[in-house]
Amino acid sequence: MASNFTHPLFPLIRKLDSIATLTDEERQAVENLPVRIRALRARHEIVRHGEKASQCCLILEGWACRSKVISEGKRQIFSFHIAGDIPDLQSLHIPLMDHDLCTLTQATVAFIPHEAVRDLTMRFPSIAAVFWRDTLVDAAIFREWMISMGRRTAFDHLAHLFCELYLKQQAVGLAGEHRCPLPITQGDLADATSLSNVHVNRVLKEMRGKGLITLRSNTLVIEAWDELIRAAEFDATYLHLQKRAVP
Amino acid sequence: MSLHLQPVRVATSSDDSESQLVFAEGFLVAMLVHLSEQHEDDAGRWFLEAGFGRIPSRDHPTFLDLDEAQTWIRQQLGNAYVS
């Protein structure tokens, strides 16, 4: 058990373990995956729209996002990803990328050949089920983002996003006591919420003024959790964070 | 196309309140807001708070000054009739 804390793929083990308890054999199979580990700079394009992927990218450290750029350089961020996530897992079955995957911060990632992931999921159907479940939760998060994009006010949208980012990080042991890393810019928040930088700036100031949050040194402190979730009408059901035995 | 500006104060739930309504041929086409100190690097610029008709209401560009903003608005309006 203690060895997991030093194994390079520990973030993936931790993520899988937050969903279903792994057997020793499964854990070993994950640890033995033939990965290529790379340190990437911030704002690095890992895989681009139109490319054919032959490997999956596991985030070991840092943040990444999925996004798409349209005319005049307008960028929409679809999702944020943290250690333990495999943001391009779907490329295993649909290798032609229909969006970009980029780092937001300096990051360490592990590239796992599709063949190895396929072999792992064939040998251990319960791991395949956890991966499948993860893509379903992904879809649930997209639905919630759609509601925020279409129906929530700028204030409620950002409040909702902060609750989500905190809980996602807390679930894998990267946050606690209503304090979590938020190593992204106001521009990133604007691109993820379809708001202008100006609107994001105004809302953040309003939140600070109301004593709901503090933002300093890439850290988000939620000073009034109950008030923030009330303001955002936040219901964490869609994150499906409770540990579930996968059949 | 001549534009007409009318200063107003606008409630934005922020320090940004100085604003100009922009009219073209009598029609309200845009609202520009002067960005306050809270915007740091963008402070002092003019922000397209809202656009109507041919002025894209989803985009929110900022401009160095009112002249630049009006040039951009004229480009968006082109020669088309405002309504």
UniProtKB/TrEMBL annotation, chain A:
Outline the extent of the HTH crp-type domain.
152-226
Recorded source organism is: Methylobacterium soli
Q: PROSITE patterns from the xrefs?
A: HTH_CRP_2
Transmembrane regions listed in the UniProt entry: none
List the protein's name.
Answer: Crp/Fnr family transcriptional regulator
Going by the UniProt record, its keywords in alphabetical order are: DNA-binding, Transcription, Transcription regulation
Does Transcription regulation appear among the keywords? yes
Protein's GO biological process: regulation of DNA-templated transcription
Gene Ontology terms for molecular function = DNA binding
Q: Name one Pfam family in it.
A: HTH_Crp_2
Q: Which domain of life is it from?
A: Bacteria
Automatic annotation (TrEMBL), chain B:
User: Taxonomically, which superkingdom?
Assistant: Bacteria
Protein name in UniProt:
Uncharacterized protein
Q: Which organism is it from?
A: Methylobacterium soli
Q: What is the lineage of its organism?
A: Bacteria, Pseudomonadati, Pseudomonadota, Alphaproteobacteria, Hyphomicrobiales
